[in-house]
Amino acid sequence: xxxxxxxxFFLIAFSFANIIFSxxxxxxxxxxxxxxxKDAKLGIFIHWGIYSVKGIDESxxxxxxxxxxxxxxxxxxxFNAIHYAPQKWAELIKKSGAKYSxxxxxxxxxVALWNTKMNDLSTFKKTPAKQDVLSPFVAxxxxxxxKVGIYYSLIDWSHPEYPNxxxxxxxxxxxxxxxxxxxxxxxxxxxxLSEQYNPDLWWFDGDWEFSAEKWEAQKVRKMLLNKNPNTIxxxxxxxxxxxxxxxxxxxxTKPKSKYWELCMTMNDSWGYQHNDHNxxxxxxxxxxxxxxxxxxxxxxxxxxxxxxxxxPSEQIHILNELGKWTKKHEEAIFGSRTGIPKxxxxxxSTLSKNGEILYLFLPGKPNGQIMLKGIKNKINRIRIVGDGxxxxxxxxxxxxxxxxxxxxxxxxxxxxxxxxxxxxxxQLKGKIDLGSRE
Length: 438
Ligand code: JFZ
Hints:
Helices cover 32% and strands 18% of the residues. The chain has 15 helices and 15 strands. Helix 7 crosses helix 14 (313-328) and helix 10 packs parallel to helix 12. The protein starts with a helix and ends in a 10-residue tail after the last strand. Bound molecules: 4-nitrophenyl 6-deoxy-alpha-L-galactopyranoside.
């Protein structure tokens, strides 16, 4: 190669490298920053806002015109937070076993939980609580060594410069000046949040009303990563996020994305609604949670505190029961990886990070033997997780002349059965080997 050509080659190669590294997002760094999230498994989502005053749908109730915007905003007068105890919240979350929490800093109704300088619509300026209720909670999470997630709605149906107001009333269709002002507003709020809380995770919502170009999604991503290169962004930023959020509830099979999170209500509402008593039982929550982690995902379980700052007793009950179960079974949950295909074990399973321990989740009241097929490894020991009881097993259908693994039957005595879901640990010789799958 002639030297001038060489120079050109290097110049081109260098500028390509620059494009990649200027974003500081090569795949190694990316997977490293996602590690805590992959290991975390459980997060607690909090929808707290003025909608808890009447106990109506968060923001959607006025958007869908079930009541006027004015009547909706009257709820500001009832948001008093008189029993708000952020440290207790954080301790309750910690006890559930969750490793992170995501709180609504602002929902589609535009009411900020912190003292934003970008406008006056905040719990600090417009409610009897007269407080920035976000800061003490973030501080409490940090104190409890829980990761901090900030939910932020891009949509702001109350903002005079936002195009959409309700489902039938639009403020404008195109107006570049107004849109520019709104962009400055929401990006200003994001930099406030980023400066004040430096969250570990951003949970965007409402991206569906406009395109990535209109939201300047790429620029927003860059801005947040500039401040904190390790921060994680959920998927609802028009494709500029880091992990997937399945849309139709519980996925039947493992989602394609390596990182994913299912968000779920405890009853049928995100915010507190006194009429909604349709709570899932602790067993149902635990059963779903196991299914999620068996497919390599995280569960983001929602609570909706009341306007006075108390958490409804049904929600506390679920968190406590979940906490008992996660504590007993922590080794099978936190830091685990996707389990084995259902052809090998007809149920939910996870694997230890090094692949040498297989955890089998036995819902309900198993009694009798558990069957496991196709595992080529020798089994060193089988035991009940969180209990220590050693279990006996037998291997059948294994021919000495064949490489085909046998069928394993494991005895699970009734005396060791967990109230919600028993977990057994199958300690293998070496990393799990699933053989040929035939
Ligand atoms: C959004 C909000 O509109 C809702 O009020 C709540 O805060 C929830 C957590 O998030 O609702 C959505 C948004 C997207 C999907 C489902 C509910 N989705 O992609 O399936």
